[in-house]
Amino acid sequence: MQIVIFGATGMLGTQLVKQALYNGHNVKAFGRNVFTADLPKNDQLELVQGALFDQKQVYDAIIGTDAVICSLGGDKSGSDMTRSLGIKNIIVQMQKAHVPRIIAVGEISLLNADKDTLIMDLPDFPDKLLPIIREHLKAYQYLKASLLDWTMVCPPEIIDSDPTGNFITSSDYAPIPDSNKIIAGDLALFMMSELNKNEFIKHKVGICNYNESYSPITLI
Q1: Which helix (H) or strand (E) holds 30?
Q2: How far apart are CA 110 and CA 18, in angstroms?
Q3: What is residue 220's predicted lDDT score, i.e. its pLDDT?
Q4: Cα–chain-centroid distance for residue 204?
Q5: pLDDT tens column, 87-97
């Protein structure tokens, strides 16, 4: 499969690149700093230096691929609109390029607390977190309004470590029991699995690690 990864140089993005290559995919890693990032050397990896808000550069990265993986970062103030406007541009260019499949990363507060309420809308949700959560919400709303086959994974705190395979998922709700953390490698592992299985199309996904004792999986 030919895939393009946006946000390929971040903590999660580098795990996604490694695991995509491990699974035999041809990978385009898109970003401003791809040539200086610590990405593996591999004949199946193409480094694409570009700007997320540039329509032509994003289109050129997407055209001819089978799927898009979106792991966009941004600051924690909510004033940086990289996540929402970045994914908006990606969606537009995917539709122009007739590439329907996207798996993106959101945030746990976008999951349902109950049938009618998101976690972010609960009365005791911390006000200081709302600016950045609203930025994630806009990204989700762009996906939901699109014609794409989207999946948004909504993780809790992401821990910088290699995959273990010890995690659980849940459609639209946080998993039970919820450890409120996920290892970056396991988050990437799930996203690569979902790329093949397509079990959560047009759904949000809750995910967390369920075993405090773990041994990282070595990716060769």
Answers
A1: strand 26-31
A2: 27
A3: 45
A4: 11
A5: 999 999 999 99
